[in-house]
Specification:
Elements: H1 2-26, H2 32-38, H3 45-55, H4 59-71, H5 76-88
Length: about 90
């Protein structure tokens, strides 16, 4: 009887620990990129230029995003945020 109680208690504790671990994983940010993009307006010029160079390799998409930004008359860091969401969205 005592061993059954011990086994049930162990299973209950294991279930609690596993459910907490699963909960912790689901509440973590989905990707580091998304949180990084939220702060595009706070990036340094160096950060922006490095990212821009990577995106420029996707010529068609980059050109389209730049055209949209220009059509909306965005400039400076406002265009950075728009371009970041355009390129990652």
């Amino acid at each position: 009887m005592c061993s059954i109680r011990s086994a049930l208690a162990a299973v209950a504790i294991l279930g609690i620990v596993m459910s907490e671990a699963a909960l912790a994983q689901t509440t973590a940010p989905s990707s580091p990129t998304s949180s990084k993009l939220d702060d595009v307006s706070k990036w340094t010029t160096r950060q922006w230029n490095q990212t821009k160079a990577k995106w420029a390799k996707e010529k068609v998409k980059w050109a389209d995003c730049q055209k949209q930004s220009k059509d909306q008359k965005l400039a400076g860091r406002k265009s950075w945020s728009f371009l970041a969401s355009c390129m990652t969205g």
